[in-house]
Design a protein that fits this description.
By secondary structure, the chain is of the alpha/beta class. The chain has helices at 3-15, 18-25, 29-43, 59-87, 99-103, 106-116, 129-137, 184-187, 201-211, 226-234, 282-299, 309-312, and strands spanning 48-51, 54-57, 92-97, 121-126, 143-149, 158-166, 168-173, 192-194, 220-222, 239-243, 256-259, 268-275.
Length: 322
């Protein structure tokens, strides 16, 4: 299986047309057809089905596409590393970050990285788990600073290096009439803004409620980005579940209050998530190390920076509007 085979296959799978793929690759149709047939022969499996309506990718072809995308991404990283070692040419890093990381250490990490690799090109994406896993799998993200639930760090396909504990809370806008509530039934009937994707902290929160015999919320708006969730929360009486450390970050701490009830909260940590068996490029490894240093420094900075229950959940209920 050669590089030109994979490039031809990926273009055919993307465009669903051998003619269009050949045009895009500046090759003849015969050359592209030959590359696909050689792949099918080597794999001993059909990759395409042909009909008067066009071509379709088989199940075997779908699996090949995922692996071929990753292989091409890794070859691109190898070229970057070699150019960087030989001539200091530009590097590229794509990283996903959780909202907590984005609002806390990310600016410092980017400043540090620019000083060490000023010519590097960067891409930063919001790293909610539902978006992180497929992006790591296909190579469009080098790594992610993700929030991993206890015993749920991506399974055997991904590696997760825990860096910091992460506490969650139920949050409401400042001045919410139920800000001082202490019983779950007082807030269960509220409207909730939640990211309900599988494996998320919300998913763990809902499972914890059921395990403790508490009725999960029924009035739920599914939100897939933190920005949408937070902005709706501070402009309504809806509630969210988010990292408790948000109260330590201006201006978010001035906009929200924590509601303390008997509802169990997820156990999680912030860490570096990578695709197992896939080495980072030199540039990505440099950035990952900077995240480790900054998160470690924050952990040592004192109770205001630590994401621990002792620091962020003092005894006693908060007064309404606190």
């Amino acid at each position: 299986m050669k590089d030109h085979h994979l490039r031809a296959w990926l273009k055919v799978a993307e465009l669903r047309s051998i003619r269009a793929a050949a045009r895009s690759l500046h090759l003849s149709q015969a050359a592209v057809t030959k590359a696909i047939k050689e792949l099918e022969t080597e794999l001993e499996a059909p990759l395409l089905t042909r009909s008067p309506q066009g071509i379709e990718v088989t199940a075997c072809g779908v699996h090949l596409t995922v692996r071929a995308q990753l292989a091409q991404a890794q070859l691109s990283l190898a070229r970057q590393d070699i150019r960087q070692l030989l001539s200091g040419a530009q590097a590229r890093v794509a990283v996903g970050v959780t909202p907590m990381v984005m609002l806390s250490v990310l600016p410092d990490v980017l400043n540090d990285f620019k000083q060490s690799m000023p010519a590097a090109k960067l891409k930063v994406s919001e790293g909610l788990l539902a978006a992180v896993l497929p992006a790591l799998r296909n190579g469009s993200l080098d790594f992610a600073l993700a929030s991993g639930m206890a015993d749920n760090h991506g399974g055997q396909e991904f590696d997760f290096e825990e860096l910091r504990p992460l506490e969650f809370m139920v949050a409401c806008r400042r001045g919410h009439p139920l800000a001082g509530a202490t019983r779950w039934q007082d807030i269960a009937g509220c409207e909730w803004l939640l990211n309900t994707s599988g494996g998320s902290h919300t998913d763990a929160f809902l499972q914890g409620l059921r395990a403790n015999g508490l009725q999960p919320p029924e009035r739920v708006i599914d939100c897939d980005t933190f920005g949408v969730m937070w902005n709706l929360m501070v402009r309504s009486d809806a509630l969210i579940v988010c990292p408790a450390g948000m109260l330590e970050i201006p201006p978010y701490g001035a906009e929200a209050s924590q509601i303390r009830t008997e509802a169990p909260m997820p156990v999680a940590s912030i860490g570096i998530m990578t695709l197992r068996g896939t080495p980072l490029s030199l540039a990505a490894a440099t950035m990952a190390d900077l995240f480790r240093q900054r998160l470690h420094s924050r952990a040592q900075a004192g109770p205001r920076a630590a994401l621990t229950r002792a620091a962020l959940n003092p005894p006693g209920p908060a007064p309404a509007g606190a």
